[in-house]
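__Record contents__

***
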Amino acid sequence: MNNKLISWLSSYKFLPKFMRDFDSQRDLIRVIDHVYEGNPGDEIMPNVMSAQCYVIDRFLWFMASRGYTLQKTKTKLDFEPETFSVREWEKKFNNDRNIQDY
């Protein structure tokens, strides 16, 4: 692997800006964990830290070293809102749950 590629990978520029910070990565993984909490097979899922390390430091790094990066689609659909903050997501989740319960 050449030095220019190693430098680019080490800067995490292959990730969207909101995912380049460790704390933001952790929050995103925690939100994903909350979304799927209680689903079948949940008991065999890795903990948040293991998931973060595998996804960011192994999978996405591996894919980026081969020229693939994450990018937002240009497809025109009604996507879920970009709620990556754990606090924002919990607030939205609790509001949605309260609405659905009544």
Observations:
- The radius of gyration is 16 Å.
